[in-house]
Fold this sequence. Notes:
alpha+beta, Immunoglobulin-like, Four Helix Bundle (Hemerythrin (Met), subunit A), 2 domains, four-stranded antiparallel β-sheet, three-stranded mixed β-sheet, 10 strands, 43% helix, rod-shaped
Amino acid sequence: MQQLLRHIAFCLVLLSITSFAYGQQVVAKVDSAHIMIGDHLNLYLKILGTDGVVNPRADLSPIDTAQAFELVKEGDWEKIVVDDKSIYQKQLTITSFDSGYYFIPSIKVQFDNGNKKVSQKTQRIQLAVLTPQIDSLQIRIIKNIVAEPVTLADYMPLILSVLGLLFLCLIGYFIYRRIQNKPVEEVYVAPKPPHEIALNKLKALSEKELWQKGKLKEYQSELTYIVREYLEKRYNIQALESTTAEIIRALKNEDISEEHKTQLSDMFRMADMVKFAKATPPIDSQSKLLNEAESFVTNTKKEVIAEPLNPDEA
């Protein structure tokens, strides 16, 4: 055991002799031996003696790995003069968030001196991290909140919002007026002529095959209604609400052949007999009545001549 202690002492003496042989010494220094928790503390790394010293560097990993301290800021190496002596100095800013007594770890500093690479460590520094003491007996008066003066900048968000809303309303109003003032193009659809309507209805009646199914009364009602409707629209008479005799008298002065008038008279009388007297006319006469109705509409239709458009309407 004593032999081991001798070897250690010998190495320390040898290291000290080697350091002083080059005339440099590495030390650490702090602004204060204690700080309040969360405060910042300046830690200085110094190389005393700058003769032949180049490329100084420090291994800060001990501070980074120490749980009690955090490195806040790292400065560069600077060559300064203190008491007419030239030294190298590096400023570090550290902090701590745990109260108690700690040691700032030893930091290894390396530099080149001629062809030699020199490595030394700083001493450890004890530091007390204190917690602020709260005087529970001293009661302080709570001061009222001091209101700051209101400026135009405080109203700018509201002003900009109102202006933006007014701008959007103005755009919407102009769009609405533009749509309202836009002329609407009306497309005129000419109504179908009476004969076309009648012929389409007669065709549909034929496809129903009512009289073939024994629905004679229904067939006669639809047939006479189609013809009466045609007469009312074609000759402008009240054919739907008139009797057979009244219809024939109304058509007296119209350009209708006597044959067609006779056919109309027979058609209406037969329908009246079927609907009111429950007569049963021959089955083959029903097809004949439909053909006569189609022939009457076709021969008495009014030709519609399309009027030419005005140049402005073209």
